[in-house]
Amino acid sequence: MPQRVLLSAVLSLATIVAVAFCHILSGLPSRQGAAAENQSSNTARPIGQHKSSAEFSQAGVCARCHVVSVLEWSISGHVAAKTNCQKCHGPSRGHVANERNEVKPDRLPRGAAIAKALCSTCHETGCPVSLQNQNCQQCHHVHALINPKQSPNKKNNRLDKLVARWRTFEQHLATGEKHISQQDWKLAELEFQAALALVPGNHRAQKRQDMCRRRLNPQLPGFEVVGQQVELETGLPHQVKLVELGTHMVLVPPGVFDMGADAWPSSRPAHTVKVDAFYLGQHEVTQAFWKTIMDENPSAHQGTAFPDGQHLPVERVSWDDCQQFLIRLNQRVVGGGFRLPSEAEWEYACRAGEREFPLPTDQQDAAALLSARAWFRQNSLRKPESPADFKDIGEFAPQQVAALQPNRWNLYDMQGNVAEWCSSLFRPYLYDATDGRELLSHKGMRVLRGGGFADTAASLHPAARHAERPHRRLRWNGLRLARDVPSLQVNKENPTQANP
């Protein structure tokens, strides 16, 4: 009999934890976004929306790593008493900032010390039931506070409501996804809105609702949509072009990737980087486009020797020149916001979801892999019949943009043709966009990516980094445009239906 009682108690606890697990994971904020989600959960709610349960507002960033501990805490009386993680363990700002657990919480007592250091701070007279003030763990789990040796003897109404609410929430999500598959964006948006009424701030429901709203009312100043393809995570069109100027840009979807490689000292170590969605030029900026904006063409490869020069990538431009070009472009195009890609964005777009890029030791094998989509030393000779073993750089030249095969995300010439300036300062990895390397006002070498028309296959690897002084103008360096995705600007009460 004792074994049956214990088994029943354990199963009950497992059920509670499983349900709590679903709820916490659905609503927990990121370390950077905790404040934003807490704010969004306090905004006006539609009629009939449930209030956010205590575990959503109190768990905070702790639930990102300490999932089990927060699950245990979420079924205790501490939730109702508003005793959260910080109340017991302190603000622990260093612990929160250090994701590798190298900094411990401010207060972390063990064993018998828990009762004195934590429990007694609130329960000064001891346990409300046993009146003891030590060895609390004999009867209480340290977070859940229940006694797993005792079987529940009454129906848990709170748990039943929680389960029913979660099931309804999941039904709204499933119905919303069904409407998306039918391209009924308005009904899908309403389903995700209903899901958020049940679980305010849920990141899955919020992202899908935002996507539907962008699809219903895309705000793309300065852009003209090309085709009907839509990226289903953001709701933004896959391809756009600049109004009047005609330059095409491709949506790079959000995601994470392993940046860097061990083949080059400056690219070590490989590490995971998150990239938000952004638009990137389908090909490099051409001489014709540069001249349209700047009223001059600085390229070395132009004139009668290069009759197709207007379709060649612009080169012999410095990083500083690129900034002036972007200033003029942003003044000319409604909405502005054009910039150089960061080197993380560039590598992510170049890899296009491919985890590994083979780099054969046999140079001929490497060249064969790249010749179909990259202009480099193997295929960019001005006079291919030249028999000399040693060839000066003047014997090579850039080629017309978008003449070879694109990568998986429909981007041309990401490798070869001209090396492309990035916004980033050349600094050691790990890459961190917030450490000052993306500030335009800081001095230092700037990053170039992709390699050029006279480079070997090895130099074209997506992880290979090159650095140059920002004022230097070299005939193998050019640029590619980037632009942030537009913010969500819709009337949330009555978004306008758009043609699917």
Provide tags for this entry.
3 domains, 4-stranded mixed beta sheet, 6-stranded antiparallel beta sheet, 500 residues, 33% helix, alpha+beta
Fold and architecture overview:
The structure is a single chain. The protein has helices at about 1-25, 35-40, 55-60, 60-65, 65-75, 85-90, 95, 115-120, 155-180, 185-200, 205-215, 285-295, 320-330, 345-350, 365-370; strands at about 225-230, 235-240, 250, 255-260, 270-275, 280, 340, 420-425, 445-450, 465-470, 475-480, 480-485. About 35% of the residues are buried. It has about 500 residues and is an alpha+beta fold. It is elongated and about 95 Å long. α1 (about 1-25) packs across α5 (about 65-75), α1 crosses α9 (about 155-180) and α9 (about 155-180) runs antiparallel to α10 (about 185-200). The protein contains 15 helices and twelve strands. β2 and β3 form a beta hairpin. It folds into three domains: about 1-110 and about 145-155, no CATH class; about 160-215; about 235-485, paralog of FGE (formylglycine-generating enzyme), CATH 3.90.1580.10. The protein has a six-stranded antiparallel sheet. Residues about 1-55 and about 490-500 have low confidence and may be disordered.
